[in-house]
């Protein structure tokens, strides 16, 4: 009898629910093209968005911990809530927690200490990710940064494994780059160390170039044949 009443109640509510859905979709922009996928912000709800898939319009909702602004794609067109500017749109940030994850989707420190790793939660499952070499995780910016940007919380010398000298010989190659002297990483043509305000930072040349330990400059790989086995 209870199940029968529940079914009747749901059937009675069905027209109302459909009318609410239809009313909500009335505020959606038309699909611009019958082919392709397009996502648009809901005018009132930062947790929701309109999705056009090959001309079919649907109302979608972001997973817990995510919001929609059209600029992120952490999961299903949605971005981390702290990266989204909702404006006048309302956002429900009630956490749905699981072990290791405050929200079902989010980024979190791996520990209370300075760390080169962090936790990335997806669907409520925590996974440990690594910052690029020489960087540490900053819980405030939700990003990996140079350790000297988190002084005194982090010790750059411990992270990079290098202690910057107080001065360098005036005629040395490093002196040419003062006050940001450069130093090679032994056995590694792909990276270099530069000192900023006395703190070491581990860098790469970029643009497909390698670091020359003699001139302390970034050069094309064909100028450094002894670095042929280094990964760019």
Automatic annotation (TrEMBL):
Name assigned to this protein: Cuticular protein analogous to peritrophins 3-D precursor
Keyword entries, A-Z: Chitin-binding, Disulfide bond, Glycoprotein, Repeat, Signal
Lyase listed as a keyword: no
Organism encoding this protein: Apis mellifera
GN (gene name): 410065
GO terms for MF: chitin binding
Superkingdom of the source species: Eukaryota
SMART domains named in the record: ChtBD2
Residue ranges occupied by any Chitin-binding type-2 domain in the UniProt entry: 28-88, 98-156, 161-229
Signal peptide (residue range): 1-22
Taxonomic lineage from the root: Eukaryota, Metazoa, Ecdysozoa, Arthropoda, Hexapoda
A single cellular component GO annotation: extracellular region
